[in-house]
Write a sequence for this structure.
């Protein structure tokens, strides 16, 4: 607590960790490249420099506030330095802005404009480092990198994966992987959090838009969409709507305009996952074996577990993720319904996630050699497609999803937020169908933005301990505690991205805790509005178990295990 | 043999001193890196062999009772220009440029018959300087920190103790409280010798104050300035002095472990430190419960991979931790969160080496040496166009003139003094007008230079100052860690401009851009190295602007250093028209008729100099 003097104006501060936060609170926008409130302070871009009353320049991101401290944020000297630093960055940057996919969303472009760099006095160097586009999810273009290190810290500090780091010295400095390998060849889990924080076009989503257009234009293909829960509360941000605003009806309408033949909700797949996973868990609890059970719906977590903890793989649920389960079910259903049809069924999943692209491409996620999900389009890619086709998103009339998968449960929708899987499973276990039970579950500890949450439930006289984590670094911490015997759980839900799928790397940027909170609120709002709360109350599910899944449940599991 | 308590230490100390006295003659063969490269180890072995044959050899580590001659591998004597060096005590003869063939004469004449071998002695203006201390190079020096370098066996624990070693440690362990030790160092006003000049005692007090069970003492031996080798010489010549200083710091700050970070390019320093640490452990001066005082402390060596930036405190600690050596933003400061996030004392080699002296002689004594605000002595490595290059130690406040002309013996080949670069790539160039400037922290800061770690590069009239600036900028750019934008990108662009200028393509606007870049870099770079990266350019631009202007406007380099700016001409009067130059010119730039003077077409000439060498009449010259 205290008061600072910023540009001559008194500003109170409370628990702000640095004067940059105090300055921004005072309504003064200081540009930054390397500062993210959720990552460690790095202090390399030097854009947030301020002048103290003795005329020294200090970085506001790394200086804690002090009572009576006096700083100036926009003196002539500071403006001059900021301009020079930007000029230096631009001189070294691949400035093909007009054809850069990041154009319009690029922080370098935005800040250069704000700071007013009109001319670059240094010769431009044409860097021609190879672009890494071998992986399924992320394209890395080192020529556009401004070396702010945000991706390095995101990978290390959020995920504990650390596949990116600095190499070489001086002006030869590079952000790269070990031995400059492709992201596909190192332990990258495809979560894409690096691209969420990347200010430029150096890390981008690998887009499947062209492949989608190709399928949509092909008369011999029936193109079926499934939309993940988290997409509906975020896509609006790319059209100027508030985070958390629910746009499901508009997405459905837009997809039809784009030429999709059928549009479904992945929440139905999630309902299947709830039932399968809840039964698997109860079975293991009864047998007292292979506990804790880890969730398996996050493909980044799944890959991480395979790489880092192969010994834990038997503890990871055999359930496919909702995307894959639903893909498999759709394919089976349409094969049955249209057995004489010549058209090829193409399932395109609309996902908040870059790792889902990787998941869909895994060789085991197929039935008789055919992919369960043919391609994955992220939220941001769908927004681009909508813009490219001149669809005025905000003016679309809401439309409903198609039959036969027309019903959605709240349990399926809350999968989009960290804690949602656990909450849905708990709803399945509690047989009472009243509001106070639901409320009780929601207050059990599964909700919220903390990195590690714990909940305890009494089910059939047994105490079930549930752990909920997001961020793989948090998962790793929990696993170590479990291995040391300091913690004991029956079920652990792991989502790699902050806040769960709503914070996925396929979502619009910028993302921060506030944005994620609003999106989560949107998800819970959808849940509230839906008459069906529990997965097993969804009539679609019943129809499936009695229909295509009858004696065919194994298609919902990894390696056909069940 | 372990020394278990204070009584045993005193006994060991006395016995070692007495044994040292029994060596009626001592032969100290310099085994610093320079002399070793000149073959001093062979000389050492040869002399040892010859004395051994006569049955006179004694080794302090082995024989306490025997009288005879001691032969020792000592640390750097400093007069590197004249190496390999051999010193004979008690006469204090210093033999220069000793060769293996000289050994027999040295042994038979000096060691057996007490005669001087004058031909190996320093001679100037027909005067033979027999005693080392009389040689002008040494006369003006005050060797305190370097005292043991050149006077004891650098690999002997007993010899260090015989010369009063570890007495300071035993004094603090049994007679002083940690707070008193800090206060004593603070009172002495010992300032950090690594460049910053921050009072060591204050740093120690801040660490002592920290509430943490684990604290560290770190020694910065990552000496990276081009041409500087003070710290290396101390580590090689008096490793126990550094260890004792660090252990005292450990006691004063209640730390438990120490780390010495040495460049891997200093293999001899690493080896001598390793031997010294092992010996200190073996004798109980490091490890658990030192001398039964209840204080435990141990030291590890970490080898750096040769990154200049690792001399910066937070990069250094990151490197010890196994991370990439990149400076981090402060706060927190190293004294609060340093190595492994624990409170850490970080001082440089020379600073620690001063500590035992202060404890033994008192802070009042120390403060009496040199100016009040920068007391003590400073070691410098003096190199460049000076007659006597080498390692020297002078009281702070000694003037540049005394250092360069009295100790350094003036400029080589009777040329004119032009400038001296002080403080390495972070320092600045000083000129004739600064020759009376006393060398101390504050005086140098006032003129835009710094003591730095103590490198002095002397330059004569033939040195191009633009090229000097380019050289240092090239060094800094290569050694920048690349973390912050101004240092990474700014130094790259400054280097680019300087290269443009020395290649004759510079403009007047480039000079403004250089100054603009320098201003941004020094105001906004993250660490001290970045902030000072532009200093060589700023100081040369300030004192030698004419030279820069000459390069960019007249396209001339008067020192003929910048080849691209040179023009090669044929003197009509001398040319006999032999056509040899025209035939050898690779670009057919030389035209003319046989037996008539030839001319060079300047637009074609690539200044390769082939014609210069080819002309039999020396008619071609650079203009």
């Amino acid at each position: 607590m205290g008061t600072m003097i910023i540009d001559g104006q008194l500003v109170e501060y409370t628990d702000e960790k640095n004067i940059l936060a105090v300055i921004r609170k005072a309504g003064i926008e200081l540009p930054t490249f390397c500062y993210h409130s959720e990552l460690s302070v790095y202090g390399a871009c030097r854009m947030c420099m301020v002048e103290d009353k003795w005329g020294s320049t200090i970085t506001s991101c790394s200086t804690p506030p002090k009572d009576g401290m006096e700083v100036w944020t926009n003196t002539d000297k500071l403006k001059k330095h900021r301009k020079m630093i930007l000029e230096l960055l631009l001189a070294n940057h691949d400035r093909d802005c007009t054809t850069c996919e990041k154009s319009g969303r690029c922080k370098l472009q935005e800040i250069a404009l704000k700071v007013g760099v009109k001319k670059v006095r240094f010769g431009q160097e044409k860097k021609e480092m190879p672009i890494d586009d071998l992986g399924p999810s992320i394209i890395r273009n080192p020529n556009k990198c401004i070396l702010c290190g945000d991706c390095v810290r995101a990978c290390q500090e959020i995920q504990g994966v650390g596949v990116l780091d600095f190499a070489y010295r001086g002006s030869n400095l590079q952000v790269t992987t070990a031995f400059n390998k492709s992201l596909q060849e190192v332990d990258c889990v495809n979560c894409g959090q690096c691209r969420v924080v990347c200010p430029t076009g150096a890390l981008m989503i690998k887009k499947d838009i062209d492949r989608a257009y190709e399928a949509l234009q092909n008369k011999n293909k029936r193109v079926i969409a499934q939309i993940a829960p988290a997409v509906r509360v975020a896509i609006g941000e790319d059209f100027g709507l508030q985070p958390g605003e629910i746009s499901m009806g508009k997405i459905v309408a837009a997809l039809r305009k784009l030429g999709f033949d059928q549009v479904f909700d992945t929440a139905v797949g999630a309902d299947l996952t709830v039932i399968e996973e809840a039964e698997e868990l109860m079975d293991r609890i009864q047998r007292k074996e292979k506990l804790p059970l880890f969730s398996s719906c996050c493909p980044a977590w799944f890959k991480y577990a395979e790489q880092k903890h192969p010994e834990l793989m038997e503890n990871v649920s055999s359930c496919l993720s909702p995307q894959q389960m639903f893909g498999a079910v759709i394919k089976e259903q349409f094969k049955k319904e249209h057995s004489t049809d010549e058209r090829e069924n193409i399932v395109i999943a609309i996902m908040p996630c870059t790792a889902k692209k990787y998941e869909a491409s895994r060789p085991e996620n197929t039935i008789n050699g055919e992919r369960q999900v043919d391609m994955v389009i992220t939220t941001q890619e769908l927004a681009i497609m909508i813009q490219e086709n001149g669809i005025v998103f905000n003016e679309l009339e809401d439309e409903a999803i198609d039959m036969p998968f027309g019903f959605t449960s709240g349990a399926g929708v809350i999968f989009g937020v960290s804690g949602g899987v656990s909450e849905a499973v708990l709803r399945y276990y509690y047989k009472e169908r009243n509001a106070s039970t639901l409320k009780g579950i929601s207050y059990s500890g599964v909700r919220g933005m903390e990195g590690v949450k714990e909940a305890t439930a009494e089910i059939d006289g047994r105490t079930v301990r549930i752990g909920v984590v997001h961020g793989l670094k948090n998962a790793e911490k929990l696993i170590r505690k479990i291995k040391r015997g300091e913690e004991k759980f029956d079920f652990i839900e792991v989502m790699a991205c902050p806040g769960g799928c709503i914070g996925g790397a396929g979502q619009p940027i910028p993302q921060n805790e506030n944005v994620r909170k609003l999106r989560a609120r949107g998800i819970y709002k959808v849940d509230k509005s839906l008459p069906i709360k529990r997965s097993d109350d969804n009539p679609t599910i019943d129809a499936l178990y009695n229909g295509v899944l009858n004696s065919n449940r194994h298609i919902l599991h990894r390696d056909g295990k069940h | 043999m372990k020394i278990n308590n204070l009584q045993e230490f005193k006994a060991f100390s006395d016995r070692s001193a007495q044994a040292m006295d029994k060596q009626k003659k001592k032969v100290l063969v310099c085994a610093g890196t320079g002399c070793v490269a000149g073959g001093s180890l062979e000389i050492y072995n040869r002399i040892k062999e010859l004395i051994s044959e006569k049955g006179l050899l004694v080794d302090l580590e082995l024989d306490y009772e025997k009288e005879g001659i001691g032969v020792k591998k000592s640390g750097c004597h400093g007069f590197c220009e004249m190496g390999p060096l051999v010193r004979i005590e008690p006469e204090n003869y210093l033999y220069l440029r000793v060769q293996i063939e000289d050994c027999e004469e040295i042994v038979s004449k000096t060691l057996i018959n007490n005669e001087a071998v004058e031909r190996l002695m320093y001679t100037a203006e027909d005067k033979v300087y027999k005693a080392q201390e009389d040689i002008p190079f040494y006369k003006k020096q005050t060797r305190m920190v370097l005292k043991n370098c050149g006077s004891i066996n650098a690999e002997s624990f007993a010899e260090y103790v015989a010369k009063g070693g570890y007495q300071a440690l035993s004094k603090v362990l049994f007679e002083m409280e940690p707070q008193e030790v800090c206060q004593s160092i603070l009172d002495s006003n010992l300032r950090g010798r690594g460049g910053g000049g921050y009072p060591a005692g204050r740093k120690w007090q801040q660490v002592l104050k920290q509430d943490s069970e684990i604290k560290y003492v770190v020694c910065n031996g990552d000496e990276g300035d081009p041409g500087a080798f003070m710290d290396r010489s101390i580590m090689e010549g008096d490793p126990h002095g550094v260890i004792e200083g660090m252990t005292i710091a450990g006691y004063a700050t209640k730390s438990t472990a120490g780390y010495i970070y040495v460049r891997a390019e200093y293999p001899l320093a690493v080896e001598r430190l390793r031997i010294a640490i092992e010996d200190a452990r073996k004798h109980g001066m490091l490890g658990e419960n030192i001398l039964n005082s209840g204080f435990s402390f141990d030291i590890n060596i970490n080898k750096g991979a040769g990154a200049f930036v690792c001399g910066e405190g937070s990069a250094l600690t990151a490197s010890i931790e196994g991370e990439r050596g990149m400076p981090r933003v402060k706060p927190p400061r190293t004294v609060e969160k340093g190595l492994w996030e624990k409170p850490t004392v970080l001082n440089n080699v020379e600073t620690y080496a001063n500590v035992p002296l202060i404890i033994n002689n008192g802070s009042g004594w120390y403060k009496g040496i040199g100016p009040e605000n920068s007391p003590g002595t400073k070691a410098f490595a003096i190199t460049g166009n000076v007659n006597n290059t080498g390692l020297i130690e002078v009281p702070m406040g000694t003037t540049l003139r005394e250092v360069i002309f009295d100790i350094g013996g003036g400029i080589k080949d009777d040329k004119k003094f032009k400038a001296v670069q002080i403080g390495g790539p972070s320092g600045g160039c000083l000129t004739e007008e600064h020759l009376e400037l006393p060398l101390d922290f504050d005086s140098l800061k006032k003129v835009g230079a710094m003591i730095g770690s103590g490198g002095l590069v002397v330059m004569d009239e033939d040195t191009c100052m633009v090229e000097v600036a380019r050289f240092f900028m090239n060094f800094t750019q290569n050694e920048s860690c690349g973390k912050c934008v101004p240092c990474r990108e700014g130094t790259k662009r400054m280097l680019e401009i300087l290269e443009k200028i020395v290649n004759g393509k510079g403009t007047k606007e480039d000079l403004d851009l250089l100054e603009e870049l320098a201003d941004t870099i020094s105001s906004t770079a993250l660490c001290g190295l970045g902030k000072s990266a532009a200093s060589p350019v700023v100081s040369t631009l300030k004192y030698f602007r004419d030279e820069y202007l000459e390069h960019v406007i007249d396209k001339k380099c008067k020192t003929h250093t910048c080849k691209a700016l040179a023009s090669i001409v044929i003197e009509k009067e001398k040319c006999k028209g032999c056509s040899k130059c025209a035939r050898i010119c690779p670009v057919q730039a030389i035209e003319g008729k046989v037996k008539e003077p030839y001319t060079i077409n300047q637009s074609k000439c690539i200044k390769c100099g082939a014609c210069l060498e080819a002309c039999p009449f020396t008619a071609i010259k650079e203009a």
